[in-house]
């Protein structure tokens, strides 16, 4: 008999749970791969069109010079990665990029700035960008670092749909990757975003030298939030010369797929985004990720400062898989 036949963790049409324990998430990771994929695809089909993929575009509106020490990040001022600090882009330049993204099929436009936290004058400029992108008929998302409650309310007033703020990894491994802000700092910003009525985009990065138990812990934290993130990006580490993780050993692709599947099962109604690292993934690995419940990708040649597959490659792969862009 299939392990899914009487499995209470994925009961048909049950409301999402917010009390996932580490032992339950660990049990998912430990399943035989075919069974895990079956469970993930079963959950996915109950909540989404299995052949639809949300297309998003991510633009770095303020690149480099970040004072934080995130070990994976080429935009940190602490590392010599060849990324130069730049000023905030102009409103017209950002809207031009958004129009091009929409013409290429993107329904969501995401804007990222390399700040620890935005100054109020910078936030005013970002809010104008949000208003302009919304006027084009696209969903909006920004990632600006830590926010105060007042700043989140200002972003909400501008019409912001989503705020991205990843937890990155498990609470236990976090200090090995970042020392300039705490795990609780991240959770506090997520709380401010929720209280302001903005949708949450929150996930993490795998392949940073963490153990499977850390991946279990990351998924357990996300799945136990009072409200699941509406969007859950799962990133594979992009190893950038000059960062402390430049020589990190590659993660087994099947372990990455397991992480995607665990996210899908535990957060059944969230959009699970296959994010950074796709440039180094085989088409077969990406196809397995879609089978495991991923239903969003970023279009375009760059994710902030790191490479991403070109639009033509993505279109070709989606056509071969019989998949199509999700309706806005």
Give an account of the 3D structure.
The protein has 328 residues and is of the alpha/beta class. The chain has eleven helices and twelve strands. It has helices at residues 22-29, 33-47, 91-103, 120-135, 149-158, 171-177, 183-195, 212-223, 253-266, 283-291, 311-321, and strands at 52-62, 108-113, 139-143, 162-164, 199-201, 204-206, 231-236, 271-274, 296-299, 302-303, 306-307, 324-325. The strands form two sheets. Strands 1, 2, 3, 4, 5, 6, 7, 8, 9 and 12 form a ten-stranded parallel beta sheet that branches. Helix 10 (283-291) links the parallel strand 8 (271-274) and strand 9.
List keywords for this structure.
ten-stranded parallel β-sheet, alpha/beta, 11 helices, about 325 residues, about 40% helix, globular
Given as residue ranges, the uncertain stretches (5+ residues, pLDDT < 50) are 1-12, 301-305
The end-to-end distance, rounded to whole angstroms, is: 40 Å
Helix content: 25-40%
Count every helix, treating DSSP H or I runs of 4 or more residues as helices: 11
Strand content: 15-25%
**Shape type:** globular
Derived structural class: alpha/beta
Number of strands: 12
Query: What about the largest sheet?
Result: 10 strands, parallel
H/E series: HHEHEHEHEHHEEHEHEHEEEHE
């Amino acid at each position: 008999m299939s392990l899914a036949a009487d499995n209470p963790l994925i009961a048909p049409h049950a409301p999402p749970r917010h009390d996932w324990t580490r032992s339950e998430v660990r049990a998912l990771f430990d399943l035989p791969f075919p069974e895990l994929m079956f469970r993930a695809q079963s959950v996915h089909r109950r909540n989404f069109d299995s052949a639809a993929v949300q297309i998003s575009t991510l633009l770095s509106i303020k690149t480099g010079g970040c004072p934080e020490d995130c070990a994976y990040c080429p935009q940190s001022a602490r590392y010599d990665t060849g990324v130069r600090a730049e000023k905030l882009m102009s409103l017209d330049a950002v809207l031009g990029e958004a129009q091009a993204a929409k013409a290429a099929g993107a329904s969501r436009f995401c804007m990222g700035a390399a700040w620890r936290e935005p100054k109020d004058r910078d936030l005013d400029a970002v809010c104008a960008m949000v208003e302009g992108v919304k006027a084009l008929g696209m969903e909006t998302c920004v990632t600006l670092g830590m926010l105060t409650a007042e700043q989140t309310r200002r972003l909400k007033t501008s019409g912001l749909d989503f705020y991205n703020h990843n937890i990155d990894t498990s609470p236990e491994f976090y200090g090995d990757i970042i020392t300039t802000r705490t795990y609780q700092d991240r959770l506090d910003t997520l709380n401010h975003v929720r209280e302001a009525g903005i949708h949450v985009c929150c996930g993490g990065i795998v392949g940073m030298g963490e153990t499977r138990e850390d991946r279990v812990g990351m998924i357990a934290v996300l799945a136990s939030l009072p409200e699941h993130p509406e969007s859950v990006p799962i990133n594979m580490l992009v190893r950038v010369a000059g960062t402390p993780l430049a020589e990190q050993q590659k993660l087994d692709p099947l372990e990455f797929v397991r992480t995607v599947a665990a996210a899908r099962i535990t957060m059944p109604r969230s959009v699970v985004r296959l994010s950074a690292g796709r440039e180094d993934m085989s088409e077969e690995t990406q196809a397995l990720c879609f089978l495991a419940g991923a239903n969003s990708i970023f279009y375009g040649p760059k994710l902030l400062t790191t490479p991403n597959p070109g639009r033509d490659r993505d279109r070709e792969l989606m056509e071969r898989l019989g998949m199509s862009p999700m309706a806005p």
